[in-house]
Write a structure and sequence with these properties.
By secondary structure, this protein is mainly α. It is built from three helices and no strands.
């Protein structure tokens, strides 16, 4: 299991660094393995996958943003 993020290389590496630093604050040792997949001419692939799942389910997926919006109301 893993976490997938999408973005420009500097943004992606900044997220990895922030995660590592957050874990290192509470842990003596942190291991991180990253797999980078670059495809020229492709962007927004994660959103395309989410859209496909929503289409198959016939409904929108709940997201962290929508969950916090529901709690605030």
């Amino acid at each position: 299991m893993g976490t997938i993020i999408e973005g420009e290389i500097d943004q992606v590496l900044a997220v990895l660094k922030a995660c590592l630093e957050a874990m290192a604050a509470d842990c003596d040792r942190v291991t991180c393995t990253a797999k980078l997949d670059y495809r020229a001419g492709y962007s927004g692939r994660l959103q395309t996958k989410v859209d496909a799942v929503e289409q198959k389910l016939g409904r929108k997926l709940k997201t962290l943003g929508s969950a916090s919006s529901e709690q605030d109301s």
